[in-house]
Amino acid sequence: MAETAGESRRYRYLRAMQVDVWISRGHSPQAPVAVAVGEPDSTDAVAPPAKDDSDAAAIAAGTALAELEVVVSGCRRCELQIGRTRTVFGTGDTRARCMIIGEAPGAEEDARGEPFVGRAGQLLNAMLRAIGMSREDVYITNIVKCRPPKNRDPKPEEMAACSPYLGHQISLVKPRVILAVGRVAAQHLLGSATPIGRMRGQSYFYEKCDGGARIPIVVTYHPAYLLRSPLEKRKSWEDLRRVRQLLESSP
Ligand code: URA
Ligand code: SF4
């Protein structure tokens, strides 16, 4: 099979993600099998944001998100307000078809006010590029908007205090797919105590969206965990391919 520009680009992205690319016999090294089976290229990129709502509705949703961000910046609903430098509300396309939900801001996110900008964020960016997407195409946020001290897990009461904000974000962005990254985010979103290794690969739905929409949730490992356990990156790559497939099959 001849190498295409799209394939070689995807190959580079997989390398950036440090996913081993397996080359089967009979394929040229430039056409890795893992990449040759239906991954995106420039001709089948993820569809642009759905135009099913009017532009007015889109503008109203953007405005509502901006207003909510101002409310959150002054929030004192839980103890995490004590140690924060800045709240970290969310970033990306407010009409995104894919919403990525992590756990909580870390040190760099707390300093910059933006989610996933540290080392884990770099890996998340590479993972997104591997499915033909970028940070700008998705909406990224966390379960809690303030950094827990010493990066401890957020407590259940802190997640409960903060989750109405996330609920509003989901209702306003109206994603077609939610990617829950890491155990804390997945367990909180799904109200489950199942270990993440058993959650990933399963079909779940977020049912609490205003208007009754059921949004598929894909669970994957946290990029910070993948930095420590690089052998698991291949599984995350499979999870991201599922995100991609769900986006392609959703209206
Ligand atoms: N980890 C998260 O879960 N969220 C961030 O924003 C950064 C690191
Ligand atoms: Fe408010 Fe959420 Fe920050 Fe707690 S974590 S103070 S609920 S914004």
What would you say this structure looks like, in words?
- The protein has 251 residues and is an alpha/beta fold.
- 42% of the residues lie in helices and 10% in strands.
- The chain has helices spanning 5-16, 33-36, 55-73, 107-112, 119-130, 156-173, 183-190, 196-199, 223-228, 233-249; strands spanning 91-92, 98-102, 139-142, 177-181, 204-206, 215-220.
- A hairpin with an 8-residue loop joins strand 5 (204-206) and strand 6.
- The chain is globular.
- It starts with a helix and ends with a helix.
- Uracil (URA) binds at residues 102-106, 109, 115-116, 118, 120, 142, 182, 224.
- Uracil binds next to loops.
The major beta sheet can be summarized as: 6 strands, mixed
List the ions, cofactors and other small molecules found in this model.
Answer: uracil, iron/sulfur cluster
Rg measurement, Å:
18 Å
- Largest beta sheet: strand ordering: 1-3-2-4-6-5
**Helix and strand sequence:** HHHEEHHEHEHHEEHH
Mean pLDDT: 84
Low-confidence segments:
20-50
Number of helices: 10
Please describe the structure with a list of short key phrases separated by commas or semicolons.
alpha/beta; 251 residues; binds iron/sulfur cluster; binds uracil; 10 helices; six-stranded mixed β-sheet
Brief characterization of the structure:
The chain is α/β, with parallel strands linked by helices. The protein has 10 helices and 6 strands.
Topology:
Elements: H1 5-16, H2 33-36, H3 55-73, E1 91-92, E2 98-102, H4 107-112, H5 119-130, E3 139-142, H6 156-173, E4 177-181, H7 183-190, H8 196-199, E5 204-206, E6 215-220, H9 223-228, H10 233-249
Parallel strand pairs: 2-3, 2-4, 4-6
Antiparallel strand pairs: 1-3, 5-6
Helix pairs in contact: 1-5, 3-6
The structure holds uracil and iron/sulfur cluster.
